[in-house]
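> @MW can you paste both from yesterday?
MW: sure, first one:
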Amino acid sequence: MKVLVIGGTQFVGRHIVSSLIADGDDVTLFHRGHPNPDLFAWADHRLGDRDVDLSALSTGAWDATIDTSAYVPRQVHDLAAALGGRGGRYVHISSVSAYASPVAPGLTEDAPLAVLDDPTTETVNGNTYGGLKALCEQASLEAFGPWGAPVSIVRPTYVAGPHDYTGRFTWWVERVARGGRVLAPGPRDNPFQVIDARDLAEFVARLAHGHAAGTFHAVSPAPPFSFEGFLTTVVDTVGPAGTELVWAEAEALIEAGVSPAELPLWAALAPGRDISAADPSRAFEAGLQPRPLARTIQDTHDQEIAEPTPVRGPVGLEPDREEGLLKLVA
């Protein structure tokens, strides 16, 4: 099968391409370039910036198109126009952030989506990201639906695993692997979900192959599962003997000025924290098969030992900062 991947060299896209390779597909990648020229050297690489020029896609036809990097609806419409019906099935990678907040635990894919005050904005930040993702989903159906090929929308939660340039999940794994007293932010019972990038990739490839279609939560484990359960699993998997989780109240951490970047994946007291209690049953029925969380933790740690992934921007507590907080709030 011939598959076009918009992106395909970074983290999620990289794992998607690897999964397509394993399926024996003929893959074309459209991207701006990658510092490692040997990455997927055998594939058809079409270089360009989707915000500036899509002319590299003026030739060719594909059975499916997988879009990993649309953040504003214009990008979806422009891609559809450039392909002109030559893209086949369209799989759009969205996010659980597309839902209106707050949500109810156990939410399904039919929960209300976020609505922006200014739907024309192209400023992507913490206030607009979810609403823009919802608009991208709408654009997917509007722009690709008329061509007659199925449109599938995948809403992942936090994505984890090897080659994660965000470093959010990885930071917790590597912090616990150093052992000692680890600052653990409450509430302990905050819902928590994650998806291994490799499992997400295999599911996306399945949709591209036409084995299923629709809108799906790519999340795991099925609720209920807590942030305490996550950190405890990290300790059980990579924590040296004597590793101790020292729990601190969210209010104390907020008063101390702790930022989300310092404690990644921490939902604190955010009204929308139940977004991490999404129902994955529809995706499970369609073929999503998440591996055990402990395996994702171990594989991430092993990858960091073998070849650390460069992280975009600072993430996690510095040791001195953590020690100070342990004395102050724990």
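MW: second:
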Amino acid sequence: MIKYIEHRDIDKKKWDECITNSPNGFIFAYSWYLDSVCENWNALVEGDYQTVFPLPWKKKLGISFVYQPFFLNQLGVFSLNPITEELANKFLDSIPKKFAYIDMALNYHNTATLSDFAITQRVVQYVDLNNDYASISKNYSENLKRNLKKAKKNKVRLIKNIMLEKVVESFRLTQGKNLKMFRKKNYLQLTDLIKKLISMGFGQTMGVYSTDNILCASASFMQSNNRIIYLKGAATDKGKEIGAMHYLMDYIIKENAGSNLLFDFGGSVVESVARFNKSFGAKEYVYLQVRKNNLPKFVRWIKELK
């Protein structure tokens, strides 16, 4: 039996044990991660936390809705038991009717087919780090190889554990120009999230500097459940010219080659970003975005104007 549980009543110890031991466990689904990025979240739980389903939610104009928070890639069903299409459908169908609008991403182990949900496929690029670096780098594109040579020719330096504020500020000044939905609170939220990841031993920052000690590219990563996941980062105009971000990503791959990890680029609907990821020989896996709209017609009209 699936139970709907308010946030205050969730047993977070049992919840996190489920995420840790689930074959599809993701760092995004841990209670502390959800607490960091969600304004509110409740949950659907089956059994004694054998299967869980987080529900991030907000309220606007008096209407409650389920949404996908920033810095949170995939949620959905996590379970100690096999996750079938029937199970995923059952959990989606158990979302309380008070949530008149639902827009969220399921994780890659979830297949859903409910007719009252609009379902869109999303893709993530990844590199399997099980092989040695020589084998992995054989799949690098010629353009990537040229950029790595360019970076080495310019004698760039990679430094680990740079100040997280530098990563966030660089991201704000570069990528932030194209992210009109980002507000000041989101950058503060990202800062706090990276700080928490580092303090808990799940996060790391890196920067690539030019010979004149200028930060040309920076990134934050998180590692959990046999995955290294690229969180956020950016390259300056100079960094793009000298292949600084190519150098940084190559370093991550080289440092972890021969492990049992996956390097998850996080995916992107932006063609140029996906092309950059694929230049590392990255493969793709699919996950689903599900939407359901039971809003009153006048609210739908207001939503379309925004």
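> thanks! The two ends are 39 Å apart (CA to CA).
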